[in-house]
Amino acid sequence: MSSKLPVVAVMGTTGAGKTKLSVDIAKAFDGEVINADAMQVYRGLDIITNKATKQEMQGIPHHLMDIKDPGEQMHVTEWVTMAMRTIDDIHSRKKLPIIVGGTSYWLQNLLFTNRLVTNKTPNSVTVDENLQSSLNRLDSTQRNLYARLPDPPPLASVDPEGTLELWKLLEALDPDMASRWHWKDSRKVLRSLQIIAEHGRMASDVIRDQDDNSPDSRYQTLVFWPYTQKEILDERLDRRVDDMVKSGLLDEIRTLHQIAGPSVDHTSGIYQSIGFKEFEEYLRNPSVETFRDGVEAMKRATRKYAVYQTKWTRRKFIPLASSCPDTWTYILDTSNPSEWEPIKTQGVDITSSFLMGSSLPSPSSLSPLAGELLLDTIKILSPSEVISAQKRVPCDVCTQDARDPFLVMASEWVEHTKSRNHQRKIENKKKRERNMERLRLKLEKERIQNSQVSISRISNDRAGNLLGASIGIPG
User: SUPFAM superfamilies, alphabetically (predicted)?
Assistant: First the structure.
């Protein structure tokens, strides 16, 4: 029997029932909840971050919520360290840690080892030959930039030239990592450069070294993935946005804009919250139309984020969890919340067997939906394969400005080319080309007609001159 201590994790999309399930399990097994939602670590702003209410918590302690001020950063390494300490504390009091949230990347790096690049002190590292060769080829401006990496990094919306120069520095030192990030994603570009400085090697080489370190479970882990069918979830999420607006969402957004000031990075911290960017036009120009547009934009963004969460879980988390010992993953069908009691019973029964060390049911046997979602086995990618899979390539069809190409992950290229947006742009491009061809043919026809008229006039003039000459009339 494993000596690892037990934890329960509840993950998945927003609106699928994570909070409800985690509280039910906590009440049944004397558990405490640890927040794994990147937006809910921030104080206040309970509506836009969709925190559980006191009533929904039902007296169950919730940790790692409201621990950062808006504007501060919470990096994955910091959260993992805090979460591990919290888990140790809960275990020391003979209680069950239950980690809950939709930030799957955080959960993945907490539950499994050998997934994060560790920090080193730059002064203590030796630069390897490959990196030194690249450093020698830098011009003076790039060398100065590398010696004084800006932290925080420049924002593309405020300083596009500085942001692009930062990316070009990474491209000069580590092309593989540069192809992984959009040049506007200055935080990830900076982090790659910091890894290079800390390790004295290309960041891509540091990550490739992880291929030799097989992932392992940090704890005995029972994972629940509450899953709601997309059509039902979409309707549920739309209603949630309407409820958030009625509960005072716009007041929170106004407060957040006052904190952010005029220059804000929408990819950083709390400012990534869905709703913050979507209502900017309404706050600048309040009207019935801009309000309606803001609501619809927030609904679209929420539905899109739920799709992203599902893809991440299926393509990355589930394969990793399946490859690790001491980890069991179960999908619970939460499409019909009016029948919650059977869902609760299922979760509690599995948790009971897990904690007692009894045999556990086959994950695909819980429901037809579970069997369907687990039917396709997806190969887990090694860290070096992730670099290749996340390489970004430009899409000429979707690019509107050559200076700012539309980039797509190489691994998602086929899916992108089949998307409605890409196909619509191909059709629009074909229409423009057909229209241009019609215009070209029309102009060519007019040119030929004009040429024929000119030739006819010249011929008539010449004929007149010849006739005049024959009868003695001066030309």
Answer: P-loop containing nucleoside triphosphate hydrolases
